[in-house]
Amino acid sequence: MKRLNSQLQHDGAPLELILLIRTLLAGCKEISFRVSQGALAGVLGSTLSENVQGETQKKLDVISNQILKDTLRDSGYVKAISSEEEDTVVPCNPEGNYLVSFDPLDGSSNTEINSLIGTIFSITHAPQWMEADDPSAFLQPGTQMVAAGYVLYGPSTMLAMTTGRGTHIYTLDKTHGGFLLTHPNVKVPEETKEFAINTSNERHWEEPVKNYIGDLLAGTEGPRGKDYNMRWVAAMVGDIHRVLCRGGIFMYPFDKRNPSKPGKLRLLYEANPMAFLMEQAGGLANTGHGRIMEVMPKEIHQRVPTILGSKEEVETCLTYYQTDK
Ligand code: AFP
């Protein structure tokens, strides 16, 4: 089976980017080990602190963030990082050529129940003009990403990654510590009968979403003429992995509860990297009002509504926004 290095070379990734990705993944392998130790290593449960977004941090959020921060800072390739768990950007090497954004442990509430969690990341070039501690350098649309992916800590530790030449999925071979290419060039089926949305939020949704999900729930008797199934992992990384593997639509839409938070998911750490993976696998990624990867970020922790998945299903969903039917 092909190794990660050869696939990255085959896809034309520059050497420095390959070295950076390998460094980042070394950190993820350490997270994978810590996660697998669970209660034995005393890493489960919450800390007494909150992140900048007011969310209680799990011990594994803090540990994973520290591992990635230390690994990337020491690498020399990175000018600055932005993390879901950091208040502002973390300056690294002023001469570094890349910026890295990450959610160190997506779905961390799943740690308590030994369910799916993962690390999500994206990489862009560092603009030459920027100072290493300047957050504005991160305010680039997703179209500027040179690589993005996630590492899923599940029954197997898996990596999904793109450098803009298709989406490839690798499995960590723990016997020698390398990621092996197990699912080359994945293609998301264009049609689906599976959706993922937290329906407990229905009363807070806008009309297009209520109407669309209503039609899916109506099944064979409704306008869609087929029965749909629903799945919800409560970790975007798990839901998106399922969609990449067998199709589906994943939504975390705009929510009327708090207009200052248009959706729950973060643009830089969650929506953009997943959008890049999805588009490279033939799927779509939209806010309901435009392509996610074209959203111009205004601040590093910005949230955005997300609709990702099978091409035809996402297109159908978007017609509800156009006509507000
Ligand atoms: P946590 O990392 O705080 O567990 O949040 C995970 C997440 O941001 C995303 O991965 C999930 O899709 C979403 O939240 C789940 O949110 P619900 O609380 O609505 O299930």
From TrEMBL:
UniProt binding sites for Mg(2+) 2: D103, D106, E270
InterPro entries attached to this UniProt entry: FBPase_C_dom, FBPase_class-1, FBPase_N, FBPtase, Fructose_bisphosphatase_AS
Fructose-1-6-bisphosphatase class 1 C-terminal domain location: 188-321
Cofactor requirements of the protein: Mg(2+)
Binding positions for substrate per the UniProt entry: D106, G107, S108, S109, N198, K264
A GO biological process held by the record: fructose metabolic process
Manner of cofactor binding, per the entry note: Binds 2 magnesium ions per subunit.
Cellular compartment(s): Cytoplasm
Residue span(s) of domain Fructose-1-6-bisphosphatase class I N-terminal: 5-184
Alphabetized GO MF terms: fructose 1,6-bisphosphate 1-phosphatase activity; magnesium ion binding
Keywords assigned: Carbohydrate metabolism, Cytoplasm, Hydrolase, Magnesium, Metal-binding
Reaction equation(s) it catalyzes: beta-D-fructose 1,6-bisphosphate + H2O = beta-D-fructose 6-phosphate + phosphate
Annotated family: Belongs to the FBPase class 1 family.
Quaternary structure annotation from Swiss-Prot or TrEMBL: Homotetramer.
NCBIfam families: PRK09293.1-3, PRK09293.1-4
Protein name: Fructose-1,6-bisphosphatase class 1
Organism: Salinimonas iocasae
